[in-house]
Prior knowledge:
Helix content of chain B: 40-55%
Oligomer: heterodimer
CATH architecture of chain B: 3-Layer(aba) Sandwich
Helix content of chain A: 40-55%
CATH topology of the largest domain in chain A: Chemotaxis protein chec
Number of helices of chain B: 5
Mean pLDDT of chain A: 91
Number of domains of chain A: 2
CATH superfamily of chain B: Response regulator
Amino acid sequence: xxxxxFGSFLxxxxxxSPANLRVALEKKDTTRVKLGVLAINAGYMTAxxxxxxxxxxxxxxxxxxxxxxxMGYLTEAQVEELLSSQKTGCLLLGQALVDMGCLTxxxxxxxxxxxxxxxxxxxxxxxxxxNEKTESVISSFFAIEGEYKDYCSEYVNVLFKNLIxxxxxxFTPLQSAVTxxxxxxxxxxxxxxxxxVSAITADNKAAAVFASxxxxxxxxxxxxxxxxxxxxxxxxxxxYNVNIxxxxxxxxxxxxxxxxxxxxxxxxxxxxxxxxxxEYTFGTVVFTLAVI
Amino acid sequence: MEKDLSKAKVLxxxxxxxxxxxxxxxxxxxxxxxIFEANDGAQAxxxxxxxxPDVTFMDIVMPELSGVEALKLIKTNSPDAVVIMATSxxxxxxxxxxxxxxxxxxxxxxVDEEQLYKLLDNYFKxxx
Lengths: 292, 128
């Protein structure tokens, strides 16, 4: 999920527009990460060297890797290593933005390094996401602090994993969003050692696409869409409860889901409310966890 | 216990229409022709008594009566009933309570075709 937070980072720094990010997220799965981006990510080449190699390629009939070796920027072993390395989501997204002309290689180098530095991430973290690092990125992004920090950051961690697995990875977490005008709203209470109300709200258009993707069928009837979204909430909360039960031995129960209104969700009296808006390529969906 | 699939009755208990539809599709493809539905725990108990299904799929988080409460009532009256808990809330607490009450098996949600069919193969004999 570092890819999704990399998208947020680009938006927050106003490096790319929301519209361009949406296009890049749609394109990233069919994007081929080029050697230059891989070399920049590995720290083997600077963006300037990559640009020099690209310019040279326009004049000679040779592969980028061979030119980089000829110019002494890379060894043959490094070329092999880069070509067989894992093309992580951040690199796919970065390459899509470079291909679209939204980022130069140099800008990509700067933002990628800043993103890694700000979040204490390494290349290893990109290809092997562990809970500790993701939860630290989550709690810092959503400014989660205090007594409920662990419960809340784990909630977002499980939620995002489920979104990626069951709905799609083409989303960007946002730090704020308007929630009152959403006409689809479902809630579910978590009760026991941790008491909270969880909710999903979205406008009908985004809700219908979200539901269709999750149900793997075309949904236009809004009652059926709400049913499917309720089931997603129940599924994600269920898997969260299993995680909490396995890691802490604490049991959290779930009450049946209900449909409601988004103003009722914003009106929940809570000790702490975590609002988790995500911008999908088809619209905004807002998740809420209100600790009561 | 291996039963003839074409004569077998199956009851799907889940408060989500989407899940019931998905299950019906998968069960039909497996070969069932008699599929019944219940959309809450209380209805599950009632329908069970009416239909006497050969196998029952039971969600846990449901209105009226939870799946675990429905399981308890069903097993009290019909100890030999085959009840498979289909849930995403497979916590130690839920699982051990359901096992104590006589649940025959567990199915992790979202239900995966391969996992479902493998489980059903233990109970039903398909015609060659």
